[in-house]
Amino acid sequence: MLKIMYALITYDDLVHSHGISGLSEKSYDHHAILKVHFVAETDKGIVFSALVDDNESLQFKSLSMPLVNVSYKIIKNKKPPRRPISTSLKSMKKYHRTLNNLTMSEKNWKQFLDPKICILSQCYY
User: Fold this and answer.
1) Which of 51, 53, 118, 119 pairs as cysteine with 35 (C-beta 3.0–4.6 A)?
2) Which helix (H) or strand (E) holds 33?
3) Beta-carbon contacts of residue 105 (< 8 Å; ≥ 6 apart)
């Protein structure tokens, strides 16, 4: 099951991991980190979000450094949109595009991220 992880990595650990992109294809707390996205820079380190999955099937190498303020967000499927009133080509394309983006995947996971202000206010100040 795909989840979103928010965490902070200190500057010392960031050097050892060769940046936040070095965190991808590693595992942390039995979760495989598939993709990483920069959120903000603070005085303590770098806040990032990551797409994670269970590590049982992927068997990624474990991350050797600790992460701070780790939180996970489970994404529920969005409600389907109402059928458009007009049947114009433009409205039908938009309707079908929205139908295809109801569940989180590796391709569209960034649209499910919380806003930057929300992430920072919850955990990192």
Assistant:
1) 51
2) strand 31-41
3) 2
